[in-house]
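Practice set, problem 2.
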Amino acid sequence: MSYTGQFPRLTPEEAVAHIPNDATVSFSGFSPAGAAKVIPRALAARAREFHQRGEPFKIRVLTGASSGETIEEALAQAEAISWRAPYMSGSTLRKQINRQEVEYVDMHLSHLPQSVLSSFFGEIDYAVVEATEITRDGRVFLTTSIGASPTYLRHAKRVIIEINRRHSLRLREMADIMIMPAPPHRNPIPIYHPLDKIGWS
């Protein structure tokens, strides 16, 4: 482990060593775009190590939408998922759900952030989010999708940021993020012109 500013820099193996059995883990991404890629594979390897010793290791998995092979398929093949929401697309996980080996909540993607805000799924233990950079004051700049990541970052007890250097740092200029308050305390979103911004990124 080393440090970059005030934040520890961990290897994938060091990072996933903090995630215990039965944790609720939310992952970034809206389809494979913006999804964490290295941490889920390391987590799948950790699950296999536990299973080889005869010890349980499964997590509850939240994403913003479908997640692709790096999250869903890797973890499902390692039999590391006990519960999944709000969407699934992998054949391995689908078979596990149909055999009632994995609990599954199928819901409209737009309802997910509000459900998390309302603690409908309980506490989020970890958020694993892909980003281009983290500033010294803790701002996280996401890569190629936003989805539910801002909600996960705000509500998770702990956060693991997976830095992806293959993306341009200029992606930070594209995001315009606003987290709406819970109903009924919402006002109209003040966008009146194509160049208007509502967020603070």
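Problem 2, part (b): a different protein.
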Amino acid sequence: MDIILWPFKWIVSAILWAFHELFTVIGMDAASGATWILAIIGLTIVMRTLTIPLFVKQIKSMRGMQELQPEMAKLQAKYKGKTDQLSRQAMAQEQMELYRKTGSNPLASCLPIIVQMPIFFGLFQVLNGVPNAAANNEGILVLGNDKVEQFNDASIFGAPLFSTMLRPGDGNHFATILIAAIMVVLMSATQFYITKQLSAKNMSDAAKQSPMYRQQQIMLYVLPLVFAISGINFPLGVLVYWTVSNFWSLGQQFWVIRNNPTPGSQAERELNERRAEKGLPPVGKTKEEQEQEIEAARERAARGQRQQPMGKKRQKQQNKKKN
């Protein structure tokens, strides 16, 4: 595992070193917890910026998967009860053909997380190794022994940045537990809101009838629980990275839902209402197309109008009035 993570640990240590140097050059204390927290936030911003193209691909793939749900339901009904190998192969081939037509990939939705996990574990190992490296007057890859010593001395409200809820170190135990608990709650709450926001507002009505929607409802409660359980084992510095990353995801998701929602979703209807207030056409349509539709609707309404039939008595009365 160490060999696999070595390149990622090197990247993490290099980015931390660069941001730490930047903040100390502008006058911040090299051993201050604030300096190292800003360096970790800088690492988070760099990594999340680099994964933006993967996020865009994830959004496109997820929308393609949502559009496919009616077709997938038909396909599952077609092969329902057929468990022989040939039927399974045929179903798999038809599924792959549907994915190919829409350019969807079930794994694309996991790409941003897959790419970030090695960096996350690289950061975990770097920060976890700080106490031993400092005790032996050693460096950690790009971080020299002086940087390791400075990080070892860095704390926030008396809680060392390398400490965990289960391993508070020599700092203020209560401060460590309190700060870690606050960040674990923030991580879990933001993850819950991100998943709920995605499933409630940015899925079409058809997609909400699919198995994908039911899976997201399960993940709505499972992921925050996973964060809460695993968070107690992570150093405060790692919790800072994870919390900032979640807030980045929250902002990213909010922008997408507000400005580029899934077709047929509640978010798209809200966007069209805002556009209508500004005199703009619905998303995906030009003003000319909107005017043509309005004109066509008027013509249909005009053709549909017909004179109401009158009884003979009423018709005689109207003829007398004319005469």
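Answer key, part (b): Strands lie at 155-156, 159-160. Residues 173-201 form the longest helix (29 residues).
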